TrEMBL record:
It comes from the Bacteria. Residues 1-19 form the signal peptide. It comes from Gimesia panareensis. This is Polysaccharide deacetylase. CDD domains: CE4_GLA_like_6s (cd10967). The keyword Signal applies. Keywords: Signal.
């Protein structure tokens, strides 16, 4: 079969455009998979997307991307789903925070692992996937976890997030579990974060200094440090981080050359 010359040209041009696009897509993917020398993972939990979405310009100003862990996905309003779409389109990662925000250890103890996965994890993953947000990561509600549940969940998710707090007099830079060396990220299923809600407020006046110090520590040692908060707003009543404090954190990351990563960036 012989094609007329103009048609053949059109075919070749189309084919080369397609090949070029394919090339750029795979380059993007490999760029996301090559990790920087050190980084900070900022994560935000629950269903504060109508507030989170207002911070897209702030994140963009610092070229920063973060992870949002969402629970009760099946109850989200069209407006909340639209906010998540905007966050995703801005390069942020949407992760799973359970179907009904159940405490994993309690539920597994009472109902067994199989029921926990069937009741809390599988329907949440399905809801998110059907809505166009297939999750690669999961954050434990109330940081309730153990090794056995980690292993079960790592069949579904690439990485998990647990949490820990400071004991009296302890400095954040000495909180060993919140730091993972960059070259051990791929083999560390569950990353541990520490809470940064209320940093810089009267509740935690010196906490912003602690956070910056922890970021310096990660940068110096080639590690990733993990933080979590909830709402991003000036006022409560719920747990929140003030936009001004978030900006101070993002500015500090930029100043010391510490990459802001999301869970989807992790190998
Ligand atoms: Zn939560």
């Amino acid at each position: 079969m012989r094609f007329p010359v103009p048609l053949l040209c059109l075919f070749l041009i189309t084919a080369s455009i397609f090949a070029a696009e394919k090339g750029s897509t795979s380059e993007k993917r490999s760029a996301r998979n090559s990790l920087p020398a050190a980084g900070v993972l900022l994560t935000f939990d629950d269903r504060n997307m109508n507030q989170w979405v207002k911070q897209i310009p702030l994140f963009r100003k610092y070229n920063a991307q973060v992870t949002f862990f969402v629970d009760h996905f099946h109850t989200l309003t069209p407006q909340q789903l639209e906010a998540l779409q905007q966050l995703k389109a801005a390069g942020h990662t949407i992760g799973c925070h359970g179907l009904k925000h159940r405490k994993a250890v309690d539920y597994v103890r009472a109902q067994g692992m199989e029921r926990y996965l069937k009741d809390e994890i599988e329907p949440a993953v399905k809801q998110m996937t059907d809505a166009g947000f297939p999750p690669t990561c999961f954050a434990y509600p109330s940081s309730s976890r153990n090794e056995e549940i980690d292993q079960a969940l790592l069949k579904t998710f690439r990485h998990l997030r647990g949490g820990t707090g400071l004991s009296a007099g302890q400095r954040m830079r000495d909180l060993k579990s919140i730091y993972v060396p960059i070259d051990q990220i791929a083999s560390t299923g569950c990353l541990i974060g520490t809470g940064i809600d209320y940093a810089g407020t009267e509740k935690r006046p010196d906490y912003l200094t602690e956070i910056k110090d922890a970021m310096d520590h990660a940068k110096q040692r080639g590690e990733i440090v993990v933080f979590y908060a909830h709402n991003i707003s000036d006022e409560g009543p719920e747990h929140h981080l003030q936009p001004l404090v978030l900006e101070a954190i993002l500015a500090h990351a930029q100043q010391i050359g510490l990459a802001t990563l999301t869970y989807d960036d992790l190998p």
